[in-house]
Design a protein that fits this description.
alpha/beta; 7 helices; 6 strands; globular
């Protein structure tokens, strides 16, 4: 089974985020869910983004990197939205990455020092009309074009955190399809 380092989105460790991690654990995967927000959660995305700006994105990336300390190098790095920042950073810069799952965001590979590491599988999931993800879509497409076997899944709709069952953005059908694709990805990297 895979060992996953999963980073939360800007609203923090919501019950839906934790339920997603628990669903993977129930299938036998080991899932680490560091809290980059020191226990804070937010009822709106704007409030969560405001908190992230206050803390500083660089600080959050550093907290994410430190969360990997003491864990094996052979991890799948995953993140929802804001959590993509540390997930992609670690996938690109920490030796031994087994794969990366990026939900609702993506950064250009150059953001973290260059190209995507050879042999590290990548899956990106976004809703095609999500205004938050639209600015990241060119980076997502460029990553998929440059990484052998990488996959970009665009879901119908305009929700940002559509896989978090505790939020208004939740889309049950899209979340189920995302989960099926994630499980297939994890099975392939085991």
């Amino acid at each position: 089974m895979a060992q996953i380092l999963l980073f939360h989105h800007a609203q923090g460790q919501t019950t839906g985020f934790l339920a997603f991690a628990d669903a993977l654990r129930a299938l036998g995967h080991t899932v680490h869910t560091p809290d980059l927000y020191d226990g804070n959660t937010f009822s709106t995305l704007d409030d969560g983004v405001g908190y992230a700006k206050q803390v500083g994105f660089e600080t959050l990336a550093e907290r994410g990197s430190r969360a990997a300390d003491g864990l094996p190098n052979e991890l799948v790095y995953a993140g929802f939205s804001l959590g993509v920042l540390p997930a992609q950073l670690l996938a690109q810069t920490r030796d031994g990455a087994q794969g990366a799952l990026l939900f609702s965001a993506a950064f250009p590979a150059a953001e973290f020092g260059g190209s995507w590491p050879s042999g590290v599988p990548l899956q990106i999931h976004m809703m095609e009309g999500d205004e938050w993800a639209l600015e990241d879509l060119p980076a997502a497409r460029a990553l998929v074009e440059s990484v052998d076997g990488a996959e970009l899944f665009l879901y119908t709709g305009d929700k940002h955190l559509f896989a978090d069952s505790s939020l208004d953005d939740y889309d049950a059908a899209a979340a189920k399809l995302l989960e099926e694709r994630v499980l297939a990805f994890l099975h392939a990297v085991e």
